Amino acid sequence: MLELPSSQNWVKHASPSSCVERIEAFFSAHAFDPHRHDTYAIGRTLAGVQSFSYRGASKHSHPGVTMVLHPDEVHDGHAGSESGFHYRMLYVPPALVQQVLKGAPLPFLKEGLSQDPRLAAVTNALLYTPDPKLDPLAEEDALYNLITVLAEVSGQRQTKTSQDFMAAARAREYIDDNLDRAITLDELAWCANRDKWSLSRDFRMYFGTSPHRYLTMRRLDRVKSQVYAGKTLIEASLDAGFFDQSHMTRHFKNAFGLSPSRWWRGLAQSGI
Length: 272
What we know:
The protein is α+β, with helices and mostly antiparallel strands and 272 residues long. It contains 10 helices and 11 strands. The strands form 2 sheets. A 7-stranded antiparallel beta sheet has the order 1-2-3-10-5-8-11. Strands 4-9-6-7 form a 4-stranded antiparallel beta sheet, with no helix packed on it.
Protein backbone atom coordinates (compact mmCIF):
# COMPACT_ATOMS: atom_id res chain seq x y z
CA MET A 1 0.00 0.00 0.00
CA LEU A 2 1.27 3.48 -0.88
CA GLU A 3 0.24 5.96 1.81
CA LEU A 4 -0.51 9.49 0.57
CA PRO A 5 -0.05 12.70 2.63
CA SER A 6 -3.50 12.50 4.24
CA SER A 7 -3.94 9.52 6.51
CA GLN A 8 -7.44 9.12 5.07
CA ASN A 9 -6.17 8.68 1.53
CA TRP A 10 -4.57 5.54 0.15
CA VAL A 11 -3.66 3.76 -3.07
CA LYS A 12 -3.09 0.02 -3.52
CA HIS A 13 -1.32 -1.41 -6.55
CA ALA A 14 -2.28 -4.86 -7.80
CA SER A 15 0.36 -7.49 -8.50
CA PRO A 16 2.46 -6.57 -11.55
CA SER A 17 1.06 -7.68 -14.89
CA SER A 18 2.71 -7.96 -18.28
CA CYS A 19 -0.36 -6.35 -19.88
CA VAL A 20 -2.01 -3.73 -17.68
CA GLU A 21 -1.63 -1.82 -14.43
CA ARG A 22 -4.43 -2.01 -11.84
CA ILE A 23 -4.99 0.14 -8.76
CA GLU A 24 -7.57 0.61 -5.99
CA ALA A 25 -7.75 3.89 -4.09
CA PHE A 26 -9.68 6.09 -1.68
CA PHE A 27 -9.60 9.90 -1.52
CA SER A 28 -11.46 12.02 1.00
CA ALA A 29 -11.37 15.33 -0.91
CA HIS A 30 -8.84 16.50 -3.52
CA ALA A 31 -7.29 13.57 -5.36
CA PHE A 32 -5.07 14.74 -8.21
CA ASP A 33 -4.30 17.80 -10.31
CA PRO A 34 -4.89 17.98 -14.08
CA HIS A 35 -2.78 15.38 -15.87
CA ARG A 36 -2.98 12.92 -18.74
CA HIS A 37 -1.98 9.31 -19.34
CA ASP A 38 -0.71 7.74 -22.54
CA THR A 39 -3.01 4.80 -21.79
CA TYR A 40 -6.74 4.25 -21.46
CA ALA A 41 -7.89 4.70 -17.85
CA ILE A 42 -10.88 2.40 -17.35
CA GLY A 43 -12.52 1.93 -13.98
CA ARG A 44 -15.40 1.94 -11.57
CA THR A 45 -16.37 4.04 -8.56
CA LEU A 46 -17.17 1.65 -5.71
CA ALA A 47 -18.54 4.15 -3.19
CA GLY A 48 -19.16 7.88 -2.98
CA VAL A 49 -19.01 10.29 -5.92
CA GLN A 50 -15.89 10.62 -8.07
CA SER A 51 -15.85 14.01 -9.79
CA PHE A 52 -13.46 15.16 -12.49
CA SER A 53 -13.07 17.60 -15.36
CA TYR A 54 -12.91 15.97 -18.78
CA ARG A 55 -13.03 17.51 -22.25
CA GLY A 56 -14.26 20.85 -20.94
CA ALA A 57 -17.07 19.50 -18.75
CA SER A 58 -17.59 18.40 -15.15
CA LYS A 59 -18.21 14.67 -14.78
CA HIS A 60 -19.54 12.71 -11.81
CA SER A 61 -19.03 8.98 -11.55
CA HIS A 62 -21.35 6.99 -9.26
CA PRO A 63 -21.21 3.29 -8.38
CA GLY A 64 -22.28 1.17 -11.34
CA VAL A 65 -20.96 3.57 -13.99
CA THR A 66 -17.89 2.66 -16.07
CA MET A 67 -15.26 5.35 -16.61
CA VAL A 68 -13.38 5.26 -19.92
CA LEU A 69 -10.82 8.06 -20.23
CA HIS A 70 -9.15 8.20 -23.63
CA PRO A 71 -5.34 8.30 -23.90
CA ASP A 72 -3.79 11.78 -23.74
CA GLU A 73 -6.99 13.48 -22.52
CA VAL A 74 -6.43 15.88 -19.61
CA HIS A 75 -8.43 15.15 -16.43
CA ASP A 76 -8.26 15.80 -12.70
CA GLY A 77 -10.05 14.24 -9.72
CA HIS A 78 -11.76 15.10 -6.46
CA ALA A 79 -14.53 13.90 -4.18
CA GLY A 80 -18.03 14.90 -5.22
CA SER A 81 -19.46 14.17 -1.77
CA GLU A 82 -18.38 14.64 1.84
CA SER A 83 -17.78 10.92 2.24
CA GLY A 84 -14.99 10.87 -0.35
CA PHE A 85 -14.76 8.24 -3.06
CA HIS A 86 -13.43 4.70 -3.41
CA TYR A 87 -12.60 3.37 -6.87
CA ARG A 88 -10.69 0.84 -8.96
CA MET A 89 -8.93 1.58 -12.23
CA LEU A 90 -6.93 -0.25 -14.88
CA TYR A 91 -4.62 1.28 -17.45
CA VAL A 92 -4.58 -0.26 -20.94
CA PRO A 93 -1.87 0.76 -23.45
CA PRO A 94 -3.14 1.77 -26.93
CA ALA A 95 -0.51 -0.54 -28.46
CA LEU A 96 -2.25 -3.49 -26.79
CA VAL A 97 -5.62 -2.29 -28.08
CA GLN A 98 -4.18 -2.14 -31.59
CA GLN A 99 -2.94 -5.73 -31.35
CA VAL A 100 -6.59 -6.74 -31.08
CA LEU A 101 -8.14 -4.19 -33.45
CA LYS A 102 -5.36 -4.42 -36.06
CA GLY A 103 -5.27 -0.86 -37.29
CA ALA A 104 -8.85 0.26 -36.59
CA PRO A 105 -9.21 3.69 -34.93
CA LEU A 106 -8.94 3.64 -31.17
CA PRO A 107 -12.40 3.36 -29.53
CA PHE A 108 -13.52 6.71 -28.19
CA LEU A 109 -16.33 7.43 -25.71
CA LYS A 110 -16.53 11.22 -25.74
CA GLU A 111 -18.51 11.49 -22.49
CA GLY A 112 -15.95 9.48 -20.52
CA LEU A 113 -18.75 7.65 -18.65
CA SER A 114 -20.93 4.73 -19.71
CA GLN A 115 -23.85 2.81 -18.22
CA ASP A 116 -23.75 0.15 -20.93
CA PRO A 117 -24.14 -3.26 -19.22
CA ARG A 118 -21.88 -4.94 -21.79
CA LEU A 119 -19.01 -2.69 -20.88
CA ALA A 120 -19.70 -3.12 -17.16
CA ALA A 121 -19.56 -6.92 -17.46
CA VAL A 122 -16.23 -7.08 -19.31
CA THR A 123 -14.67 -4.45 -17.04
CA ASN A 124 -15.74 -6.38 -13.94
CA ALA A 125 -13.68 -9.38 -15.08
CA LEU A 126 -10.50 -7.31 -14.67
CA LEU A 127 -11.49 -5.11 -11.72
CA TYR A 128 -13.23 -7.59 -9.44
CA THR A 129 -11.17 -10.76 -9.73
CA PRO A 130 -10.90 -12.53 -6.34
CA ASP A 131 -7.36 -13.63 -7.17
CA PRO A 132 -4.69 -11.00 -6.33
CA LYS A 133 -2.73 -12.01 -9.43
CA LEU A 134 -4.64 -12.90 -12.58
CA ASP A 135 -3.80 -16.10 -14.40
CA PRO A 136 -2.09 -14.98 -17.66
CA LEU A 137 -4.60 -16.72 -19.91
CA ALA A 138 -7.53 -15.38 -17.86
CA GLU A 139 -6.15 -11.84 -18.08
CA GLU A 140 -5.66 -12.02 -21.85
CA ASP A 141 -9.15 -13.44 -22.35
CA ALA A 142 -10.60 -10.62 -20.26
CA LEU A 143 -8.61 -8.01 -22.17
CA TYR A 144 -9.77 -9.36 -25.53
CA ASN A 145 -13.38 -9.13 -24.33
CA LEU A 146 -12.86 -5.61 -22.96
CA ILE A 147 -11.27 -4.26 -26.14
CA THR A 148 -13.79 -5.80 -28.55
CA VAL A 149 -16.76 -4.63 -26.44
CA LEU A 150 -15.22 -1.17 -26.06
CA ALA A 151 -15.01 -0.94 -29.86
CA GLU A 152 -18.62 -2.11 -30.18
CA VAL A 153 -19.95 0.31 -27.56
CA SER A 154 -18.11 3.20 -29.20
CA GLY A 155 -19.91 2.47 -32.48
CA GLN A 156 -17.08 0.96 -34.49
CA ARG A 157 -18.05 -1.39 -37.29
CA GLN A 158 -16.46 -4.80 -37.14
CA THR A 159 -14.26 -5.54 -40.13
CA LYS A 160 -14.36 -8.96 -41.76
CA THR A 161 -11.32 -11.06 -41.03
CA SER A 162 -10.15 -14.51 -42.06
CA GLN A 163 -10.62 -17.48 -39.77
CA ASP A 164 -8.38 -20.49 -39.20
CA PHE A 165 -10.10 -23.60 -37.85
CA MET A 166 -6.95 -25.72 -37.82
CA ALA A 167 -5.15 -23.14 -35.67
CA ALA A 168 -8.02 -23.17 -33.17
CA ALA A 169 -8.04 -26.98 -33.19
CA ARG A 170 -4.30 -27.12 -32.50
CA ALA A 171 -4.74 -24.71 -29.60
CA ARG A 172 -7.55 -26.81 -28.14
CA GLU A 173 -5.43 -29.96 -28.38
CA TYR A 174 -2.54 -28.16 -26.67
CA ILE A 175 -4.84 -27.13 -23.80
CA ASP A 176 -6.13 -30.70 -23.43
CA ASP A 177 -2.54 -31.95 -23.14
CA ASN A 178 -1.45 -29.35 -20.55
CA LEU A 179 -4.28 -28.98 -18.06
CA ASP A 180 -2.02 -29.24 -15.03
CA ARG A 181 0.18 -26.23 -15.83
CA ALA A 182 -0.20 -22.51 -16.46
CA ILE A 183 -0.77 -21.76 -20.14
CA THR A 184 -0.40 -18.40 -21.84
CA LEU A 185 -2.02 -17.14 -25.01
CA ASP A 186 1.48 -16.67 -26.44
CA GLU A 187 2.09 -20.41 -26.02
CA LEU A 188 -1.15 -21.25 -27.77
CA ALA A 189 -0.32 -18.86 -30.59
CA TRP A 190 3.10 -20.46 -31.01
CA CYS A 191 1.77 -24.00 -31.22
CA ALA A 192 -1.08 -22.92 -33.52
CA ASN A 193 1.13 -20.74 -35.75
CA ARG A 194 -1.37 -17.88 -35.47
CA ASP A 195 -1.18 -14.44 -33.86
CA LYS A 196 -2.68 -14.63 -30.40
CA TRP A 197 -5.56 -12.20 -30.76
CA SER A 198 -6.76 -13.74 -34.04
CA LEU A 199 -6.47 -17.14 -32.39
CA SER A 200 -8.53 -15.92 -29.43
CA ARG A 201 -11.28 -14.80 -31.82
CA ASP A 202 -11.11 -18.06 -33.82
CA PHE A 203 -11.32 -20.19 -30.69
CA ARG A 204 -14.51 -18.46 -29.58
CA MET A 205 -16.01 -18.83 -33.04
CA TYR A 206 -15.33 -22.53 -33.45
CA PHE A 207 -15.61 -23.82 -29.87
CA GLY A 208 -18.15 -21.43 -28.38
CA THR A 209 -16.02 -20.18 -25.51
CA SER A 210 -12.71 -18.50 -24.76
CA PRO A 211 -9.43 -20.42 -24.38
CA HIS A 212 -9.30 -19.75 -20.65
CA ARG A 213 -12.92 -20.76 -20.10
CA TYR A 214 -12.28 -23.96 -22.04
CA LEU A 215 -9.18 -24.67 -19.93
CA THR A 216 -11.12 -24.08 -16.70
CA MET A 217 -13.97 -26.39 -17.68
CA ARG A 218 -11.58 -29.19 -18.66
CA ARG A 219 -9.82 -28.79 -15.31
CA LEU A 220 -13.17 -29.06 -13.53
CA ASP A 221 -13.90 -32.23 -15.53
CA ARG A 222 -10.63 -33.64 -14.24
CA VAL A 223 -11.51 -32.69 -10.66
CA LYS A 224 -14.83 -34.51 -10.92
CA SER A 225 -13.29 -37.65 -12.40
CA GLN A 226 -10.57 -37.75 -9.73
CA VAL A 227 -13.03 -37.29 -6.87
CA TYR A 228 -15.12 -40.12 -8.34
CA ALA A 229 -11.91 -42.19 -8.25
CA GLY A 230 -11.46 -41.53 -4.53
CA LYS A 231 -9.19 -38.50 -4.27
CA THR A 232 -9.90 -35.66 -1.87
CA LEU A 233 -10.96 -32.24 -3.14
CA ILE A 234 -7.57 -30.81 -2.23
CA GLU A 235 -5.71 -33.53 -4.12
CA ALA A 236 -8.01 -33.29 -7.12
CA SER A 237 -7.74 -29.49 -7.23
CA LEU A 238 -3.95 -29.48 -7.30
CA ASP A 239 -3.72 -32.37 -9.77
CA ALA A 240 -6.09 -30.54 -12.13
CA GLY A 241 -3.94 -27.40 -12.18
CA PHE A 242 -5.78 -25.10 -9.75
CA PHE A 243 -3.80 -23.04 -7.22
CA ASP A 244 -5.64 -24.63 -4.30
CA GLN A 245 -9.06 -25.93 -3.29
CA SER A 246 -10.59 -22.47 -2.81
CA HIS A 247 -9.46 -21.47 -6.31
CA MET A 248 -11.16 -24.55 -7.72
CA THR A 249 -14.29 -23.98 -5.62
CA ARG A 250 -14.82 -20.45 -7.00
CA HIS A 251 -14.67 -21.74 -10.57
CA PHE A 252 -16.86 -24.75 -9.70
CA LYS A 253 -19.61 -22.53 -8.28
CA ASN A 254 -19.42 -20.23 -11.31
CA ALA A 255 -19.75 -23.20 -13.64
CA PHE A 256 -22.39 -25.29 -11.85
CA GLY A 257 -24.16 -22.94 -9.43
CA LEU A 258 -23.30 -24.81 -6.24
CA SER A 259 -20.25 -25.75 -4.20
CA PRO A 260 -18.29 -28.98 -4.85
CA SER A 261 -19.30 -30.38 -1.44
CA ARG A 262 -23.01 -29.88 -2.23
CA TRP A 263 -22.49 -31.40 -5.66
CA TRP A 264 -20.96 -34.62 -4.33
CA ARG A 265 -23.35 -34.80 -1.38
CA GLY A 266 -26.20 -34.78 -3.90
CA LEU A 267 -24.56 -37.54 -5.92
CA ALA A 268 -24.07 -39.64 -2.79
CA GLN A 269 -27.71 -39.23 -1.82
CA SER A 270 -28.83 -40.22 -5.31
CA GLY A 271 -26.72 -43.35 -5.22
CA ILE A 272 -24.63 -42.46 -8.27
